[in-house]
Amino acid sequence: MEQITELFQQNHEVLLGYLLQLIAAIVIFYVGRIIARSVSGLMEKGLLSRKIDKAVVSFLSSILYAILMIATALMALSQIGVQTTSFIAILGAAGLAVGLALQGSLANFASGVLIILFRPFKSGDFIDAGGITGTVDKIEIFQTIMKTPDNKRVIVPNAKITGGHITNFSAESTRRVDLVIGISYDSDLRKAKTILQQIIQDDPRVLPEPAPNIRVSELADSSVNIIVRPWVKTEDYWGVYWDTLEKVKLTFDEQGIGIPFPQMDVHIKKDVKEAV
């Protein structure tokens, strides 16, 4: 007992220094954990306010919390004299190995983060991306789930989406319907344009502004092509497209406006040789 007391008296300054370092390390770890929770919580609230999928938000906030906690642990260990350089080197080597092994998955992960941050589309939008045309069902961290118009469920890797062009048909509130109507050369052009104008005016879904555009676009080989371009609300696009085509055909038939179709005339020549 006397030896322990004597040892303590001789080294009390060193022991006190170690104790203060340990207390400082504990304080750093405790404060760092509070900061990590606060930062991840703020990020989660910010992403949720932008109406990002809750599962994706939870995943990202947990990743941020883990990164901050690792940094906090390294700072605490460094405070008590542990050489953290070797730990950092080991983590770096492990991260490099995992990155090489999961190169494709990391590319999908990075693309998912880009989609979440820049939001080129959201759930419910009708898009053309990654070679698939359909409605976005879910945006996940590695892939985007889409539903095609015939109700097929397609899972598209995020890297494939961000690696090409993205067409978002739902991004704007209005769209232009582009139709090309061909009439025969012997039909009354003015009458045909008047009929088309009346069909567009009678449809309540067509917007008055911008004004519909009806013009002759081409004198083709077998038809006079007329462009018909009304503006509609995005949700009315396909209804107006299909209904207008049907009305044009029925009305043209009633008014005697011919719609040409491809034809080919075959002439057969027969050589008649006189008998000698």
List the helices and strands and how they pair.
Blueprint: H1 2-49, H2 54-79, H3 85-101, H4 103-118, E1 126-129, E2 132-139, E3 143-147, E4 153-157, H5 158-162, E5 167-168, E6 174-176, E7 179-183, H6 189-202, E8 213-219, E9 224-229, E10 231-233, H7 237-255
Antiparallel strand pairs: 1-2, 1-5, 2-3, 3-4, 6-10, 7-9, 8-9
Helix pairs in contact: 1-2, 6-7
Structure notes:
Helix 1 packs antiparallel against helix 2 and helix 6 (189-202) crosses helix 7. The longest helix has 48 residues, at 2-49. The mean pLDDT is 81. A hairpin with a 5-residue loop joins strand 3 (143-147) and strand 4. This protein is an alpha+beta fold. The N and C termini lie far apart (145 Å). Helix content is 53%, strand content 17%. The strands form three sheets. A five-stranded antiparallel beta sheet has the order 4-3-2-1-5. The protein folds into three domains: 12-116, Helix Hairpins (Orthogonal Bundle), CATH 1.10.287.1260; 119-168, SH3 type barrels (Roll), CATH 2.30.30; 174-255, Alpha-Beta Plaits, CATH 3.30.70. It is elongated.
Roughly what fraction of the amino acids lie in strands? 15-25%
The CATH topology annotation of the largest domain reads as: Helix Hairpins
Radius of gyration: 36 Å
Give the second-level CATH assignment, the architecture of the largest domain. Answer: Orthogonal Bundle
- The low-confidence runs, each spanning 5 or more residues with pLDDT under 50, are none
Secondary structure tally: strands:
10
